[in-house]
Amino acid sequence: MLGSLNNQIQNNIRNILHSQCNRILVEAYKLAKSDPVFMNELDEDVYTAVLVDRYMPKIPLKYNGYWFIVPQVPYYTEEHLDGVVSTSKAPRPDIRFEKYVLSNPESFKYTIEAKKIKSSSSKLKRRYLTTGIQNFLSGRYPDGCLAGYVIKCNSKDCINGINKLMIKDNRDKEILINGESIGGHEEVYHSYHENNILLKHIFLEFP
Q1: What is the pLDDT along the chain (207 residues), one digit of tens a residue?
Q2: What CA–CA distance (Å, rounded) separates 161 from 119?
Q3: What is the DSSP-derived secondary structure letter of residue 48?
Q4: What distance in Å separates the CA atoms of residue 4 and residue 116, rounded to the nearest whole number?
Q5: Which segments within the chain are labelled E, that is strand?
Q6: How far apart are CA 113 and CA 141, in angstroms?
Q7: Conformation bin of residue 52: beta by default, left when phi > 0, alpha when psi is -120 to 50
Q8: Closest Cα to residue 203, out of 136, 153, 138?
């Protein structure tokens, strides 16, 4: 009974911390979206760098909660640390959040993997599945969510395109569906997958 209660407490803390990380991303986007740098289409990593280095430090303390936030930190598994797999091959998710909480002797980590996406690009929509969603389902990436950098189009058209690919792949039960808004940001979705995996998807539209 005590073990079950402790697990519930840990899950509650985990959910709260996940929500904090997602809120930080959204609040940074609200500040960043009118930045003139985005008037031109950029490499995917530039969007992440601007959000993390220029705007996340400006997030009010009530949202940022003393997180340590860095882009593209390698995620090492035991195989990397044992020398079985080269550390140069370690995955590098786009954003990592790290924080210590009193109830946990180890730091809490959260990952956001970002993908540039256009409704007109089948290649980018397919990449969202193969190197975005699939990297979480396979365990290649740890706990976290996906962010879609929507370029010169709208999120709903991108979602429709991704879902068509899912259906084409006979993955009808895994399509993206509307989720709860985050800080007033409505373009939030989630998808259900095997092994009780729930993924959140946050789409950010750039001009």
Answers
A1: 444 546 676 777 778 888 999 999 999 999 999 999 998 889 999 999 999 999 999 887 666 667 889 998 888 888 888 888 888 888 889 999 988 876 667 778 899 999 999 999 999 999 999 999 999 998 888 889 999 999 989 999 999 999 999 999 999 999 999 999 999 999 999 999 988 899 999 999 998
A2: 7
A3: H
A4: 40
A5: 68-71, 95-99, 108-117, 144-151, 177-178, 188-193, 197-206
A6: 9
A7: alpha
A8: 153
Instruction: Give the C-alpha separation, 99 to 207, whole Å.
Output: 33
Cα 146 from Cα 201, distance rounded (Å): 5
> What strand order describes the sheet that includes 188-193?
68-71, 95-99, 108-117, 144-151, 197-206, 188-193, 177-178
169, with CB counted inside 10 A (0-12, 13-18, 19+), is exposed
- Tokens read off for 40: 């031109």
Q: Are 187 and 158 in contact (CB under 8 A)?
A: no
Alpha-carbon distance 43 to 84, whole Å? 32
Number of compact structural domains in the chain: 1
Enclosing domain of residue 157 = 2-206
Within a 10 A sphere around the Cβ of 175, how many other Cβ atoms? Answer: 17
CB 79 within 8 A of CB 96: no
Torsion of CA 56, 44, 152, 36, to 10 degrees: 50
